[in-house]
Amino acid sequence: MTEHTSYTIDEIVRLSVRLALILSRQGASYASERVEDRLKTFLDEIITAAPKPQSGPRQVPAVPVERSILHHAIISLEDGQPYKTLYSHLSTLGLSPKAYRKKWGLPRDYPMAAPAERERLRALRECCGQFPCRRRRRRRHCHRDG
User: Fold this and answer.
1) More confident call, 146 vs 100
2) pLDDT for the residue numbered 51
């Protein structure tokens, strides 16, 4: 009776390469068939030994998605805290906006900034150009100057 030994994926790959090299050096006419049979066996073991994706409990958002968009803030589904924009918050968590939307199953047009903040930035761009003026001497006519 043969004993079945369990191998890790790395060991299976290493053994299969070693076996292929040994059998190819022998020069026997049956070597290629034996290598192919042995590799199929190893590949079957790799497939069965591969870790299965865990379907653990799905994360629950900190707040319901419908209540996450307020006029002056957008609430993070990760921690439930309000933010004007989520960009810097997500970067500290190692997420991109696309990954955040995918993680929580959000639509592509889900905002990453609060409506009031988007309106403020739009008004700044209209009066000051694409890059709002930051230095007094370079300042063009701005809505704050009156």
Assistant:
1) 100
2) 61
b/e per residue 111-145 (b: at least 16 CB within 10 A): ebbbeebeeeeeebeeebeeeebeeeeeeeeeeee
- The percent of residues in the chain predicted with pLDDT above 70, rounded, is 60
Structure tokens at 44: 């079957």
Global pTM reads 0.52
The answer, yes or no, to whether residue 4 has pLDDT greater than 60, is no
Q: Which of 11, 15, 58 is nearest to 38 (CA)?
A: 15
Helical H segments across the chain, by residue range: 9-26, 31-49, 87-93, 97-104, 115-128
- Show the tokens assigned to 2: 């043969």
Q: What is the CA radius of gyration of the chain?
A: 30
pLDDT at res. 37? 74
Distance CA 138, CA 146 (A): 17
Interatomic CA distance for residues 108 and 97, integer angstroms: 10
| CA-to-CA separations, 114 to 10, 61, 73, 121, in angstroms, rounded | 49, 18, 5, 11
